[in-house]
Batch of 2 targets.
Target 1
Amino acid sequence: MFEREEKIPEAEEILAETPLPAPLKKVKAERDALASSVIRGETDKLLVIVGPCSAHESRPVLEYVERLGRLNERVKDRLVLVPRIYTNKPRTKGVGYKGMFTQPDPKSKEDILKGIHTIRRLHIDAIGVSGLSAADEMLYPENYAYVEDLLTYIAVGARSSENQMHRLVASGIELPVGIKNPMSGSVPVLINSVYAAQSGGQVFKYQGWQVRASGNPLAHAVLRGAVDGYGNDIPNFHYETVMKVIEGYAAAGLANPAIIIDANHSNSGKRFKQQIRIVEEVLNNRIYDKDFKKYVKGFMIESFLEEGNQKEDVVYGRSITDPCLGWADTERLILDIAEKV
């Protein structure tokens, strides 16, 4: 049984209430073009999606993104930095804090309408203070419409990559959509998910309409590690695994073959400091093999102002979900990536 609590306005109404200002639309369009050019292989720049595991409070996120904007000025000739502002949080057991979209104040009750307005304001302000438009996870496909005018990069998580609705909505998006390997780590399933997202002509119900998706040639693979039947983390950023994905791309004949390496999650076993080592190994493999370099287009890195995590929001700028790198390590790592592109 469902108990109705509050009617949520349609996305079109919300977007009209809090529109992206015209000057920031221009900034976002430029950032969209840069990120898309990386996935298309039109530039040697690397895409780096970096930021907190989940954005639980606006003020520290904006401070983080402002710092990232300043750092971008030092690396923009080699990197395309995209702030990670994730406002929906998947839960392995289905319970717990589900992100700012649902619960804009983690210490208060759920309030989705307030959450929608809060995250729209956050994304708009983030572009304003940094000149960078963000990435967010499309955890609930129906919710994407409330932020579709604000994002430059969209992620489909490991628990969602086999879901038909996620694949269908991804096929109608005209921006880079990174699809993570499923929790099993299956390469064929990952390639099938990218294939589905790239396929046009699919008809389905979305936002109250029968729609026909054009297909998204910018959909691509993200390797985040896997979990075996006993709950053990299995990394998949190593050379041999990446080459298997490259073989899968070639066999499927997909457009714009690209791979993003998620340095945290099951690749690091959530040992956040390991992200530095993982990125370094991948960079060395790009130097070693031209095919590896051609396909591996960037990284996802979890990072915040303060390293680690906490159960409750006590320390300003520290994650309340998965542990993250602190700012000092993040800055050094991004500068190092830029040197080795």
Target 2
Amino acid sequence: MPTQDAIASADDVSRRAHANTLLSPKFYSTDYTAMDRLDVNPVRAEWDAMLKEYEGDNNIDHFQRTPEFAAEAAALPDELRQEFLDFLISSITSEFSGCVLYNEIRKNVDNPDIKKLMTYMTRDESRHAGFINQSLKDFDLGVDLGNLKRTKAYTYFKPKYIFYATYLSEKIGYARYITIYRQLERHPDKRFHPIFKWFERWCNDEFRHGESFALIMRADPKLVSGLNVWWIRFFQLAVYATMYVRDHTRPTLHRAMGLDPEAYDYTVFRITSEISKQVFPVTPDIDNPAFRRGLERLFAISSAMADAKARGGLVGKLRRAGLALSGVATFARLYFLPVVRHDLPARIRMEAAW
């Protein structure tokens, strides 16, 4: 697969952060009036306990840099450096997307429960984005977050789509970070950059954010039943497929950490599916050979589309159009595969035990 254009300047970083593709993190807006009407009283006891945890802010002292950051940034070989930069830019865009969304909800609602929650989550995501940005600056790069907020395209999602997508994003973010952390805990010689040492407590923020959306959804049973189960299936597949394709475009990064992208992704899928049983009555059957073949096919299509784009011209455009249709057909086949069904637990919240 052709590599993306090299990241060598602040302009390159800005273009990558602003990109709106199937694989790049999005910025969202939503119906703030509907968000204001949310009622969490059916889950009040668990909700209040969660807000006390946010108030305690157990990561207030965590995101403090050490001198090793700048020193180790300069030592990376070029191919690893490029894939690591792409990882950092994608991560900062994702974290800052949450920061912007949560802050906009906070500013536009009067509901005290939702306002307080969004204040805490904005705080967390702001720390995450800022911490990653400092690591980018060690490479003499960085993202102008203020400009990104003003100029990146926004996608409108109904609140329920925000709940499904953001819950999954937060939980899969936890699963990704904790899997990397545990791997490098076992193999510290593979820890090529110090930022990975921060992942354990960092990903507990992601876990708690997901818990927040789990409580919001379980407070309204309609969101996790009936026809909405079809939307749940769509977002689960979209998040898993996006991660699979994106991770397979970074082989050098995973190899440096001693991870096989295939095994890593399915470990993350397994953790995320197990966690999401707290709120979703279905999960993808990730062990179905047809599911695995479908994800492999999506990656092959993505690689072929990159080749066609690099080729350019009319032939390249026609090739990309045909591949896009093939991608849609492959996604549709995956969507209608059998899923794993289960009952929702009486107690909603879970512990970050992985």
